[in-house]
Amino acid sequence: MARKIAFAIRKGGSGKSTSSINVSTALLHKGQRVLLVDTDDQANATMGVGLEPDQLQYTLNDLFADPSLDPHLAIHQSYFGLHVLPAHDNLSKSEANMEPDDMFLLRLILKKLDSEYDFIIIDTPPTGGYLARNGLAAADEVIIPVRAGAFSRGGLRKELATIERARRYNPNLKIHGILPLSVDNTQFAADLLEEVAGTQDASIYPHHVPRTTYVDQANELGIPLVMYKPAHDASSAYLALAETLING
To answer: Which residues are within 8 A (CB) of 144 and not within 5 positions of it... i.e. 6 or more apart?
Structure first.
């Protein structure tokens, strides 16, 4: 049975898609069977591994529109072998027509794929709508990426509250950890520890991803950072997190 891990935070530009891409790729390179699921209508995780949504016959949007479709039709392989269930900008139209029961669509889709993967990594949108709820309803665990900056702690507070609400419909949902991004010093991690004090299952990973312009370069090229600059400290942090996930 696959471990289903959602990357989630209620803040745009947080490095969520970048982290989803690089942890998925790092897990793949460590010999794991991995599926990356993109539930964000911006499709950044999809394009970040070199796939173009408009060139694909089937995407996650088609599975939401017709849950009876074989989900394998919508699974595509990146040029380096990562399996991807891609997003499309039409997801926003599908979300507008969703009803409360539709928040479990992704859970039902992934149930058909459960035995085929070791890890299913879910990139969620930074909103609180049905696409994000689908991701949290389908996940076993959540990783919260938090970028160093003036408003990051507010985004973290919102996400902790969102996860608490998600436990009403997914009571076993756990926070695996909080991933500090664009870190220049250790004070940011200390500030995050203060923010999550009293949150029972929220811990800060020791793998802090440093600030680097290589992230934007890699995303623009559709190449995961761990492949583009494998020796960089940021790549090392993602590889270390992948090892942490493999070890439990």
So the answer is: 7, 8, 9, 156, 159, 160, 175, 177, 178, 179, 202
Helix (H/G/I), strand (E/B), else coil: 245:
helix
Residues 6+ apart with CB under 8 A from 77: 83, 84
Q: What mean pLDDT is predicted for residues 152-168?
A: 83
Tokens of 2: 């696959």
Backbone angles phi, psi at 210, to 5 degrees: -75, 160
3-246 is classed CATH 2.20.28.90: no
pTM value surpassing 0.85: yes
Structure tokens at 9: 């935070």
Task: Compute CA distances 34 → 12, 37, 60, 106, 195, whole Å.
Answer: 25, 10, 16, 17, 32
Tokens of 186: 């250790």
pLDDT, tens digit (0-9, with 9 covering 90-100), for 121-148: 999 998 889 999 999 999 999 999 987 6
